């Protein structure tokens, strides 16, 4: 019997653990700082074990890793290199859904010598994005074409029937990461020229994106797209762009939230005990009429939808600032978590769309590849399924010897993406492609 160690029992771990527990010949140990979370995931499965682990106790972590054939790290990304190093030391396989960082990349040679794979970026974004893109890119190459342009968008959003707040967004986890992404600069290649967007200008750069079979969403750049030219080996490409999707209005609202100073992580001692209106007044040095002062500070009309959104969030109201808030970001994140959570039974939605423009000797083609996946009411979210299931499927394929690679890998090779995408499609997680001559 093969032994799998799952490190972490957070929000995306459910579909992964349940998939693995259903496989014949697998023993699955779920180890978490909170053993009760691991016990809930394992349930009464005969082949499941729940254990407590403190990842800062390297000796106990190493003991668990040494006993497993493969370890899946669903821990915060800073711990992945430690898990990987211990896997290489004990000649064990490893899977994670997170981005490859330099510390992980440095383990490539050691992993190859140990004869093990360290498979990274096998979630949704990164993960399904790589696999679905490479499937089309390889098809273009194999058909005698050359990729000229690649644009990709992805967003996790409330399903339309759950989209009932003016921000068009909901959280099932801490909002900090989502809103802090608004401080990241972005870079992409467009028509042969590199475009650099400073972090403070990110939300000023947005545009409508038509999603096949769905409607119009809003897209904006997602960090640095340039390295994907190497990842996908498309060195002749003239456009390489990766973006984030939101419902329309998000960018304009978040731009003003940033201007208001609410993304500031600096701790202050003058926040505790204030109402939200008093806090906002302090942020803008309001002289009395908070709403008109806020509109003037943000240089927008008082009846602007952005002011209305900030009002809905409670920033002009008498509720107290969230308990324990020490920085403006704490206030924003705490308030968003109070007001923008999924209600029981509501579905989330994962939208991903790629556009490829390929030149052939006799024609130019545009291919649009679209995936829209929905969560299950009172069940798994789309986000947890699309992150967890690719990693789970890859784990099974590695243990069965069907993925027979070593070193630090991401899922851009047919040996990985073909069987994983095929199984995801059988579960309803699939892309629809449309190709036209242009």
Features:
single chain, 438 residues, alpha/beta, Rossmann fold, Dihydrodipicolinate Reductase, domain 2, Domain 3, Saccharopine reductase, 3 domains, 7-stranded parallel beta sheet
Give the arrangement of secondary structure elements.
Elements: E1 2-7, H1 13-21, E2 26-32, H2 35-42, E3 48-52, H3 58-67, E4 70-73, H4 80-89, E5 93-96, H5 102-105, H6 108-114, E6 117-119, H7 128-142, E7 146-158, H8 176-180, E8 186-190, E9 193-197, E10 207-211, E11 215-221, H9 228-231, E12 239-246, H10 250-259, H11 276-284, H12 290-298, H13 305-313, H14 328-339, E13 348-360, E14 363-374, H15 382-399, E15 407-409, H16 414-426, E16 432-437
Parallel strand pairs: 1-2, 1-4, 2-3, 4-5, 5-6, 6-15, 7-12
Antiparallel strand pairs: 7-13, 8-9, 10-11, 11-12, 13-14, 14-16
Description of the structure:
This protein has a seven-stranded parallel beta sheet, with helices on both faces. Strands 10-11-12-7-13-14-16 form a seven-stranded mixed beta sheet, with helices on one face. It has three domains: 2-124 and 382-428, 3-Layer(aba) Sandwich (Rossmann fold); 128-248 and 344-379, Dihydrodipicolinate Reductase, domain 2 (2-Layer Sandwich); 254-339, Orthogonal Bundle (Domain 3, Saccharopine reductase). Helix content is 35%, strand content 24%. The mean pLDDT is 96. It is of the alpha/beta class and 438 residues long.
């Amino acid at each position: 019997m093969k032994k799998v160690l799952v490190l972490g029992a957070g929000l995306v771990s459910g579909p992964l653990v349940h998939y693995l527990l259903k496989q014949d010949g697998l023993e699955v140990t779920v180890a978490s700082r909170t053993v009760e979370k691991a016990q809930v995931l394992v349930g009464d499965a005969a082949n499941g074990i729940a254990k407590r682990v403190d990842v800062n106790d390297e000796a106990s972590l190493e003991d668990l890793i040494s006993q497993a054939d493969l370890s899946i790290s669903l821990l915060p990304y800073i711990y992945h290199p430690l898990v990987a190093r211990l896997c290489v030391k004990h000649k064990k396989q490893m899977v994670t859904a997170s981005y490859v960082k330099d510390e992980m990349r440095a383990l490539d040679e050691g992993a190859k010598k140990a004869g093990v794979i360290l498979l990274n970026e096998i979630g949704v974004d990164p993960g399904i994005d790589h696999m679905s893109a490479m499937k089309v890119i390889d098809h273009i190459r194999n058909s005698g074409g050359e990729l000229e342009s690649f644009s990709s968008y992805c967003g996790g959003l409330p399903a339309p029937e759950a989209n009932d707040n003016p921000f068009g967004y909901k959280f099932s986890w801490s909002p900090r990461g989502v809103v802090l992404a608004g401080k990241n600069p972005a870079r992409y290649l467009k028509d042969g020229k590199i475009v650099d967007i400073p972090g403070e200008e990110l939300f000023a750069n947005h545009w409508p994106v038509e999603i096949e079979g769905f409607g119009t969403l809003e897209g904006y750049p997602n960090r640095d797209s340039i390295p994907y030219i190497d990842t996908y080996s498309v060195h002749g490409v003239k456009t390489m762009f990766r973006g984030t999707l939101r419902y329309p209005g998000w960018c304009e609202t978040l731009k003003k939230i940033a201007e208001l100073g609410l993304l500031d992580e600096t701790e202050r001692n003058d926040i505790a005990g204030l109402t939200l209106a008093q806090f906002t007044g302090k942020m803008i040095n309001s002289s009395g009429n908070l709403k008109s002062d806020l509109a003037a500070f943000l240089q927008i009309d008082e009846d602007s939808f952005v002011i209305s959104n900030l009002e809905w969030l409670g920033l002009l109201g008498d509720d107290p600032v969230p308990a324990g808030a020490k920085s403006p970001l704490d206030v924003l994140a705490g308030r968003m978590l109070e007001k923008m959570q999924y209600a029981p039974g509501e579905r989330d939605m994962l939208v991903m769309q790629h556009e490829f423009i390929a030149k052939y000797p006799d024609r130019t083609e545009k291919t649009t590849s679209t995936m829209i996946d929905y969560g299950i009411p009172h069940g798994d979210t789309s986000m947890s399924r699309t992150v967890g299931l690719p990693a789970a499927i890859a784990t099974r394929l590695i243990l069965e010897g069907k993925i027979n690679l070593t070193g630090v890998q991401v899922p851009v090779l047919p040996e990985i993406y073909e069987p994983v995408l095929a199984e995801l499609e059988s579960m309803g997680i699939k892309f629809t492609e449309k190709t036209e001559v242009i």
